[in-house]
Design goal:
about 180 residues; alpha/beta; Glutaredoxin; five-stranded mixed beta sheet; two-stranded antiparallel ribbon; Glutathione peroxidase
């Protein structure tokens, strides 16, 4: 299976074949509207506006699996993001990123890039690590999505180039995006 073989659901429930993004640099993200990382929407929108004309697409997949931090309907989530952060990048239907009902997109992404580690310089890393270790002392060894705002960078040919955990600074992500554009 390749990335472009995967189908996702648009906000209206219609099927979207990821092949429509072939030739673009993609940043695929699982998001939540009630999370400590939610302010990243501002940085993501800035990144999108700066590079969309060069071929960047940001694909936003709300996920309610982490402490139910993405409550509400997709319409409510979209309205929240538009009003509070002015987001204009593509948002899709809510999905699951881990477990029995995980979407094939995230199964594929995780198979290509495992857990990248939390950035020790980020203010939230110690707490996340503590929370993860309490639940699973060997949490670093599996490829599951650990929290909201995990990002996958895809090159123009559909290759998963890098995985960024939510504690990765946007400046680092921007440098990697620019290199692919």
């Amino acid at each position: 299976m390749q990335l472009y073989d995967i189908t996702v659901s648009a906000m209206d429930g219609k099927a979207v074949q990821l092949s429509v993004f072939q030739g673009k640099v993609l940043l695929i993200i699982n998001t939540a509207t009630h999370c400590g990382f939610t302010p990243q929407y501002d940085e993501l929108e800035k990144l999108y506006k700066q590079y969309k004309d060069q071929g960047l697409e940001i694909l936003d997949f709300p996920c309610n699996q982490f402490k139910e931090q993405a409550p509400g309907s997709i319409e409510e989530i979209n309205q929240f993001c538009s009003l509070n952060f002015g987001t204009t990048f593509k948002r899709f239907a809510k999905l699951e990123v881990n477990g029995e009902y995980e979407h094939p997109l995230f199964t594929f992404l995780k198979s290509k890039k495992g857990f990248a580690g939390f950035n020790p310089l980020h203010e939230k890393s110690a707490r996340l690590t503590e929370r993860m270790r309490a639940a699973d002392p060997e949490f670093e060894k599996d490829s599951s999505i650990k929290w909201n705002f995990t990002k996958f960078l895809i090159d123009r040919s559909g290759v998963v180039v890098e995985r960024f955990e939510p504690t990765t600074f946007m400046s680092e992500i921007e440098e990697k995006v620019k290199a692919l554009l």
